[in-house]
Amino acid sequence: MEKETDRTTEELISVVVPVYNVEKYLERCVDSIIKQTYKNLDIILVDDGSQDNSGKICDKYKEKYNNIQVIHQKNQGLSIARNNGLAIAEGNYITFIDSDDWIKKDMIESLFNAMHKYKADIASVAVYDVYDSGQVIKNVKYKNVKVLSREEALECFLFNGYLTVCVCGKLYRKNIWDGIQCPPGKLFEDQYTTYKLLDRANRIVFVPDSKYYYYKRNGSIGHSQFNIKTYELYYGIQEEYNFISSKYPELENTMAVAKITWEIVFINMMLRGDYTQDKKLVYKTRKYARKRIIDVYKCRFISITRKVQISLFAYCFTIYKKIYMSYKKLKNLS
Fold it and tell me: What is the pLDDT of residues 134-163, one digit of tens each?
């Protein structure tokens, strides 16, 4: 039986929660943080110009709990909300939770213990994907803890096998954020941020227990309609590829496959939206996929099904598009 943690020696952990028009979900999120088994928390709620009652709910929590800080700012977007929370964070460790998500009561303690046990700079847990329908899916099937070097983490995180590109669901030593911020004004801000943090970390530990509930609600960024801003995902993919493959040339072949995989994600978003199809970009991506098809077949981070998908995309796009749109209609994707 493990010895109970001495609460008087717990190190301070900052929890940053950006808040924008989430009155329906905010209490669920904040209550899950307050009920954590790890108690020495510096909770920062950043009200990003909410037009509903979210700001008032934040103030209500601040009045009730001494360890809650609240920032009210004009609407500037998720990145600046995170950055402003980071700027006043007092802990030597920091984690981020989106305000429509929530966490299991022992998530922070599990991350903190794993980080210290394995002398890691970043600790990550598995997540549950939660849908408006009520469906809950555990998106990781690994059973064992994984301890990774920065090279190993950078090689695998873009494939969403377990580590994932998301800033949330992780605990960081705060000093690895020095000089790093989420990019103001951009969608898909995690795509521009997480690889820089992994590059700073000497060791990363992944805990296979699902302890973060990621709510994929309609209207959130990941489910919004395709538009010109969606291209920021594409540009983020290029930035990641260029940085990692140039600094770690031994990872270039794997990064090429990750690049193709994410570019297809981007093109799928284009296909299921009302935006005019960018034929030049589709052609460029397909040409690159054909050029790197051997790397695709050799890649150990993607399934046979994914390899078939990429092949179909590269060589038979008309058929690929028909199959994908039929799949979208069947699954009622939005």
Answer: 888 887 777 889 999 999 999 999 997 788
Q: For residue 119, give the amino acid letter.
A: K
Copy the structure tokens of residue 136.
Answer: 């809950």
Residues 26 and 165 in one domain: yes
- The alpha carbon dihedral of 204, 210, 213, 218 has a sign of positive
* Residue 195 Ramachandran class (φ > 0 left, ψ -120 to 50 alpha, else beta): alpha
Bridge-based pairing state of the strands 13-19 and 93-96: parallel
Whether residue 195 contacts residue 244, with contact meaning beta carbons closer than 8 Å, is answered with yes
Q: Are residues 19 and 149 in the same domain?
A: yes
In a domain, 1, yes or no: no
Query: What are the tens digits of pLDDT across the range 67-83?
Result: 999 999 999 999 999 99
pTM: 0.90
- Full residue range of the structural domain in which residue 251 is found: 225-331
Residue 16, beta-bridge partner list: 44, 96
Q: Where is the domain boundary, 200, 221, 242? A: 221
Residues 275 and 208 in one domain: no
- 8, pLDDT greater than 60: no
Assigned token pair, 155: 């090689």
303-320 burial: b if 16+ Cβ within 10 Å, else e? eeebbebbbbbbeebeeb
292, 298 contact by CB (below 8 A): no
Measured CA to CA, the distance from residue 184 to residue 82 in angstroms comes to 10
